[in-house]
Amino acid sequence: MRRADRLFRIVQMLRSGRLKTARALAERLQVSERTIYRDVRDLQLAGQPIEGEAGVGYTLRREFDLPPLMFTPQELTALVLGARLVKAWGGAESVVAASSALARIEAVLPAELAAKLDAIALYAPDFVMTAAQRKLLDQLHAACLDRIVTEFRYTKLGEDESQAKNRRVRPLALTFWSGVWTLAAWCELRDDFRIFRIDRIAEFRLTGENFTQKRGQRLEDLSKLMRAKAKAGDTTQSLRLQGLG
């Protein structure tokens, strides 16, 4: 994490108005307590209204914070549910971002709305995704954004790991389907589109090789193809696209 990003996140974490110890900040940001002490000192010297001291904790004076945000109960419910879903099913980086976003929202809400956050009875289990799956999701997302060719071994549904095949793909996008993340990609082995379940991907590797999207191999081309096949009722093609057939 860049130092500028870390400093920004420290300020956001202190906006709750509650004391945060250097240890708690260090654990959240995965740095040493000494680093937190140095960062807080630098923020104070830069004019940030941080109060507190080592061994006690730090907070940001509320009068210098953002003005209160107003949401309807329905809007607040949607925001909290969305963040909880991301924390349950997102990649490791998204989990941190969702937690930070919730803390920022809570910090600037009027007291009567802030009290309603814990009363929102819509939850998502956060113990289903493993740490390895969250890391893989982050890597695949980065590969989609940066257009990096990736390689992995893939086991189709109904087969065991001994039947896994090496795949070299051009990742296009990630989609969440009822508890399962899938990767849409152009598969160089099949010379066609394929959709892979990420929980059946092993030995993942970023090649470092960038690809250029070509007509007929883009995400919009895949979307058009799937809509056309679905309209025609072609389930065989749909299964092949999903890496199931």
What are the SSEs and their pairings?
Layout: H1 3-14, H2 22-29, H3 33-45, E1 50-53, E2 57-60, H4 73-89, H5 92-108, H6 111-114, H7 131-146, E3 148-154, E4 165-177, E5 180-187, E6 192-197, E7 201-210, H8 219-232, H9 235-241
Antiparallel strand pairs: 1-2, 3-4, 3-7, 4-5, 5-6
Helix pairs in contact: 2-3, 4-5
Strand order of the largest sheet: 6-5-4-3-7
Number of discrete helical segments? 9
Mean pLDDT: 85
The rounded Rg comes to 23 Å
Characterize the largest beta sheet: strand count, sense, and whether it forms a barrel. Answer: 5 strands, antiparallel
Strand content: 15-25%
Structural class: alpha+beta
Shape descriptor reads elongated
Distance between the termini: 41 Å
What ranges have pLDDT less than 50 throughout 5 or more consecutive residues? none
* Secondary structure: number of strands: 7
Q: Could you give the order of the helices and strands?
A: HHHEEHHHHEEEEEHH
Describe this structure in words.
- The chain is of the alpha+beta class and 245 residues long.
- It has three domains: 3-64, Winged helix-like DNA-binding domain superfamily/Winged helix DNA-binding domain (Arc Repressor Mutant, subunit A, Orthogonal Bundle), CATH 1.10.10; 73-119, no CATH class; 131-241.
- The protein has helices at residues 3-14, 22-29, 33-45, 73-89, 92-108, 111-114, 131-146, 219-232, 235-241; strands at residues 50-53, 57-60, 148-154, 165-177, 180-187, 192-197, 201-210.
- The protein is elongated and about 60 Å long.
- The model has no long low-confidence stretch (mean pLDDT 85).
